[in-house]
């Protein structure tokens, strides 16, 4: 279901796949290919950040009542630690803080050998969804 949710978005265009959801984590992967490399032939840092934000945002959405609330990114940072020139990178996000109005998630992205490529931290704001009108009949 999570993969279908990303259809027609940057997630799908970059080949991001959600692999596993656990009690306190979400894991996904992304190919390192012509869609995600920078001109120097290695994984683009922005693509790593997109993977991290995708995972943290989706995980955050699982932690709220989606009928009443949504989560939106407030801040994200990333440290790019190791270049990757091909294959797949896999990210796992875990909560650092789940509050009533904010969440903080840490995402670790590794290469196919399990070596740390990028570490990211993201803050999400928890916002109320607008109330839906209960009637379409104009009031007098």
Automatic annotation (TrEMBL):
An example Gene Ontology CC term for this record: cytosol
Keyword Hydrolase found: yes
Molecular-function annotations in GO: 1,4-dihydroxy-2-naphthoyl-CoA thioesterase activity
Thioesterase domain: residues covered: 40-118
Alphabetical keyword list: Hydrolase
Listed Pfam families: 4HBT
Keyword Lipid metabolism: no
Entry similarity comment: Belongs to the thioesterase PaaI family.
Name of the protein this chain belongs to: Esterase
Taxonomic placement: Bacteria, Pseudomonadati, Pseudomonadota, Alphaproteobacteria, Rhodobacterales
